[in-house]
Amino acid sequence: MAQGKQIAPDLRKLVGYGQPASTPSLQEMKVIWQTITAEADSYLEALTPELMETHIMHDGKYSDENIGTLLMRNLYHYWYHIRDTILLVSPEAEVSLLQVLSA
Predict the structure, then answer these.
(1) So what's the pLDDT on residue 97?
(2) What is the pLDDT of residues 10-60, one digit of tens each?
(3) Does any domain span residue 29?
(4) Which pairs with CB-CB distance under 8 Å and at least 24 residues apart come from 39-45?
(5) Is residue 74 part of a domain?
(6) How many Å apart are CA 34 and CA 20, to the nearest integer?
(7) Which of 16, 46, 68, 79 is most buried by its number of CB atoms within 10 A?
(8) What is the CA radius of gyration of the chain?
(9) Residue of higher predicted confidence among 71 and 4
(10) Three-state SS across the chain?
């Protein structure tokens, strides 16, 4: 979105929000993941503090939040899901997480 590129144009149809449940091949998802993360890495490495204060354009209008805020929201979103995954695998980890968060 920030680069104005369609890196994996069929991904949303395949596994996007509101789509029917599917089980794409692990190899296919791995290739898409590697492609997307390589593009993201080059974009993120080029970001400067000044660029993070600018707003990206999407669907012909500028975002309400600047790039830095969008990046932080995305990070928090991932952390939320990582926490949920940890708790699913190891419910006793909740005590440790609560101790860290309350410190």
Answers:
(1) 62
(2) 999 999 999 999 999 999 999 999 999 999 999 999 999 999 999 998 888
(3) yes
(4) 39/3, 39/5, 39/7, 43/2, 43/3
(5) no
(6) 24
(7) 68
(8) 17
(9) 71
(10) CCCCCCCCCCHHHHHCCCCCCCCCCHHHHHHHHHHHHHHHHHHHHHCCHHHHCCCCEECCEECCCCHHHHHHHHHHHHHHHHHHHHHHHCCCHHHHHHHHHHC
What's the structural domain count of the chain?
1
| Alpha-carbon span 84 to 91, nearest angstrom | 10
Residue 80 located in a structural domain: no
Position 73 pLDDT exceeds 80: yes
The Cα 23–Cα 32 span in angstroms is 14
Residue 60 in domain? no
1: tokens are 């979105």
